[in-house]
Amino acid sequence: MTQIAEPPVTPLISESALADRVRVLGEQIQKDYANRELVIVSVLKGSFLFAADLVRAIDLPMRIEFFGVRSYGAATVSSGEVQITLDLTRPITGADVLVIEDIVDTGLTLTYILEQLRARGPRSVNVCALLHKPSRAVKPVSIDYLGFTIEDVFVVGYGLDYAERHRNLPYVGVLDQPPKKP
Ligand code: IMP
User: Fold this and answer.
1) Where in the sequence is the domain holding 127, given as residue range(s)?
2) Any catalytic annotation for residue 53?
3) Does residue 4 sit within a domain?
4) pTM (2 decimals)?
5) 116: left (phi over 0), alpha (psi -120 to 50) or beta
6) Where residue 40 sits, what CATH number does that domain have?
7) Does 182 reside within a domain?
8) Which residues pair with residue 103 across a beta bridge?
9) Which residue's CA is the nearest one to ligand 1's atom 9?
């Protein structure tokens, strides 16, 4: 098989550290939502692996929805203009919604998503994010369940991409040639 050269990635959060944290988050969520039924909203594409692991760590009745948004193109410029690329399949009126996001950077994407979901009349909306870069915050957003706080570095892997690459890495790593900042 031909190998295609990829820019180097330096491991930051190992596969086992991710698995340990996912287990703890799952336990917390299971406890907090005991006797309730969850609607999980996995934000695509970046949260697909995190969500897949997290839902298996939560032993509660749940429905799983996907919400596709595009905030960055290959240039990684966050304009705050978010495009919905895939909508939920069913209403969330009266539901306890848990949004699963890959990373909160400026907070613009999550702010937009929360506005969209809250307008649909759910009973509650909470957020579980794998990663947070607080140093980049533009819009303050509260994250109810957080995996890891990271420095201002551009990360890929475990669902996160740069120009659609690296999502399949089983760990989170720092892209050695980071894309330009907005
Ligand atoms: P925000 O609107 O600036 O908070 O950006 C959130 C979105 O930008 C995330 O859901 C990711 O898709 C993308 N993003 C932000 N930082 C990174 C990164 O370090 N690696 C990969 N994608 C990122």
Assistant:
1) 9-175
2) no
3) no
4) 0.92
5) alpha
6) 3.40.50.2020
7) no
8) 131
9) 103
